[in-house]
Amino acid sequence: MSKKFLKLVALICAMALAFSLAACGTKKEKPADSNATSAETKKDTVKTDVAKTSSKEVEFWSVFTGPDGANMQKMVDEYNKTNPAMKVKHRPILGDDLYAKIPTMVASGKNIPDLCVNHVERLPLFVEKDMLIPLDGYLAKNGKIKPENYVKTAWDMGTISGKHYSVPLDVHSFLTYYNEDLLKKYNAMNVIEDKKITFDEIKQVAQAAKKDKIKGVGVTWMRVCFLSWFADLGGKLSEDGTNPSFNSEAGIKALQNFKDMHDQGFTTVDGDDPVQLFKAGKLVFLPEGIWMKSGLDEVKTLKYGTANMPSFDIKTVNNWTSSHQIVMLKNPNMTEERANAALDFLAWVGENSLEWAKAGQNPASLKILENAEYKSMKQSFLLTMPETLKIHNYKYYGFAVEALDKVVTDAIFGKADIKKGLEKAQKETADRIKVGK
Amino acid sequence: VRRSKIAPYLFISPQIILFAIFFAVPAITGIYVAFTDWNLFEAPVFTGFKNFYEILFNKDSTFYMQFHNGLWNTVQFVIYTVPICIIVPLLMAMALNTKLVAYKFFQSVYYLPSLLSISAVVLTWVFMFNKNNGLINNVFNLDVIWGGVSRGGGQQPYTWIALVILTVWWCIGGNLIIYMAALSGVSKDLVEAACIDGANSLQKFLHIIIPGIKNPLTYTFVLTTIAQFNIFGQPFMFSTGGPSESTYVLIMYIRTLAFGSGEPQAGLASAMSVMLGLCILVVSIFQYAFMREKEN
């Protein structure tokens, strides 16, 4: 190595060091709030002449960067118009970015939002890693938020080892969209009478539709379909709460049943786009998320309805469900006053969640069931059958579903053996648990 | 005397500082993390070569399978795309270099896809490769399942072919511009002299044009290889790694491990990244050496 090169390396190192020191220096001088907030606060202080605390706003971070962000903003604006003790400031952040940020943010103890949206599946990990504040004390003091006013499964997911950590915002599920014209054509409107559809009923309709080259049911996001049907058969992702156990009889049956339907020509096949076929009136049943509704509404010629996910037997119906939950991150600057103001906002959201339903969601607050406009919405029937909303409660849910995603579609299309696929996914889950701490 | 030595360093310092902040520091941190069990939440604990043992030698481990499968898929992609990403733009540049009518227009058209983001590119080709309504199946009267609609859909080798086509379409522009510039630098006298001596097109190409653009050729060869080793967006969005994980490339595994929906496993992911980096380094050195050899 030449001397010049060594000199250059030394220079780079020196510069890097100098720069990082400089960065540290400026950081220390910065106030606890981010520039934007403190600027905002300053403006407010001048206007209202109140300058007691560092920030007079509840900082609320969400993952709603899509069109639903506008609905949330509208709700926040409405709330701020009610002249609350503290106004709310909404900041949408891309989910993956937010989740990557949380550990470092909490560790630094700076710039932490007062309220933050988390997907329900992330809660157990964040609680285990001590990222969240238990809300029990604040909830008791505030007194406006009552567990019985929320969808039970969604609320219960926030209770971990005896403490409660979150207030649910919504429950979003997979359900079945059906083409009304096609059902009439095949004299099968009775199938959806109770909003419950069995696989046998689908087979009958699909058999009748075959002559018109119309498919019975779509092969869509198989991971969540599998999780719904697996639950129908009494399956649990983990029997003991730690080790994965979906490579079981229930797991095999859940996939085998649908693979058989695929092999008999009742489902869409590899390469088909089920949503597109459904929109074109070439598919009778489409299992999809409630968030697909607005896309289907765009097709004016399409007459469709909604029902529960297909099941083996109408007695046990499970619709895979997830939930946006609102939490408080560990924050040294959290005060009773701030927490109370934050919960005031959440209580208001619970009372006024129609706007959130318009975003295609099912609000988790049962209060919405009194609203006539909501009741006419196509996803609202799910809230009247809360027992069908299946949230898989498993600490390693993230590992399990990522592993399942790699095998379940292949299994239906016959590209992988069902038993071997589940074995592989279960091993991947177990290996990832083993490597983690 | 000393002062004059400092001045050049001052000129290159902006770039060096950026390099240090956005490349050197993260790269060194990444290498350190590869030797730890870091999960982003707690302080990393040094675990020696455990992560490397896990992905390189522990045959029973899922991560051994993921690393080998991911690396092999990445290498396959490099082998399929790099030659095409060199040859196609080179031929196009030669055609355009004959200064045909409106060649500037064609040049812009060929360059245009390079300006698009990967999501726009993939979305466009998802429509093109749609089995039932796609342009390609309809124009060529095919019934091929390219993939691109459902998670894990598609059939090999068509999914690979689709990925290669969309990648080549996306990235011919950059190399095309470089070749255009290089070709205009090839001495016309030499070409003319060869013509008079009775050389045919192939001979002119091999003995005059190729040696004439050797340096840009090496440059694009190495850079294209490095770029394709970092393949992620195309299979992530088009085929989601399917069918049967046959297009699940290494960076997809790395991403799932470090930023998936479960507890992050940044140590293991970094070990995979370091191995990928080493592979790229070795291949690049080999390429440079090979091209230098020819020069001598």
Description:
The complex is a heterodimer of chains A (437) and B (296). By secondary structure, chain A is of the alpha/beta class. Helix content of chain A is 46%, strand content 14%. Chain A has helices at residues 3-29, 35-48, 68-81, 95-108, 123-128, 136-142, 152-156, 180-185, 199-209, 222-232, 249-263, 274-279, 293-297, 336-351, 354-358, 372-375, 381-384, 397-405, 408-412, 418-435, and strands at 57-62, 87-92, 115-119, 159-160, 163-164, 166-168, 170-179, 215-217, 283-289, 304-307, 319-322, 324-327, 362-363, 389-390. In chain A, strands 7, 8, 9, 10, 11, 13 and 14 form a seven-stranded mixed β-sheet that branches. In chain A, helix 10 packs across helix 11. Chain A is globular and about 65 Å long. The two termini of chain A are 42 Å apart. Chain B contains 13 helices and no strands. In chain B, helix 3 (62-97) packs across helix 7 (158-184), helix 3 (62-97) runs antiparallel to helix 10 and helix 10 runs antiparallel to helix 13 (266-295). By secondary structure, chain B is mostly helical. Helices cover 71% and strands 0% of the residues of chain B. The model of chain B has no long low-confidence stretch (mean pLDDT 88). Chains A and B meet through helix 1, helix 4, helix 12, helix 18 and helix 19 of A and helix 1 of B.
Rg of chain A (C-alpha, Å): 25 Å
Approximate helicity band of chain A: 40-55%
Low-pLDDT residue intervals, each spanning 5 or more residues of chain A = 15-53
Quote the beta fraction of chain B: under 5%
**Biggest protein-protein interface?**
A-B, 50 and 47 residues
Pick out the low-confidence regions of chain B.
none
Instruction: Give the number of DSSP strands of chain A.
Output: 14
Helical stretch tally of chain B: 13
Mean pLDDT score of chain B: 88
User: How many β-strand runs of chain B?
Assistant: 0
Roughly how much helix do the residues of chain B carry, as a percent range? over 70%
Distance between the termini of chain B: 37 Å
The dominant shape of chain B is globular
